[in-house]
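# step 3/5: fold
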Amino acid sequence: MKIAVKLFALAAVSAALVLTGCSKKPTRPMPGDTVTQTGTGQVTPVMEPTAVDPNSQLTQRTDGVIEDQFTIRGLLKAVYFDFDKSAIKQSERPKLEAAAKYLKEHPEHRLLLEGRCDWRGTAEYNLGLGDRRAGAAKDFLAKLGVEIAKLETTSKGSLEAAKNGTEAQMTEDRRVELVILKK
């Protein structure tokens, strides 16, 4: 009798766990749905690029390079990829060679490789593809003699991609950004 009661209790607890299940994953907001409101009542999408605030510690140079106390963006050119591919194209290799040269000339700096994708595909798939792209760039730099300790990777996936973008916009979204880390 005691065994039957224990089995019944175990079955009841198991059924309760199965019925409650896991909560549904939250969906990520669409970039166009995320807005900020200014004091004038004007609504501006958050994802739109804005001018550098003169009171911030960012410095925008005339050559399009953005620099702060920790990073330099835009000095090294992004590496672009074909749709749904993570192989480094022959035409993009000189950009990574320039990055390797820069790191050899500036041994105090490191490099962050940000893998990105266009809007097509699921968020999870695009995060994985962005990671593979950043990893391919890291492997290529390592083969050029760059120390692995000087390289970090991250994936932005399609988080900042132009949704339903034109072919030209999607081509621009399929890239690895080369961000110089000063510290």
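# step 4/5: annotate
The two ends are 69 Å apart (CA to CA).
# step 5/5: archive (pending)
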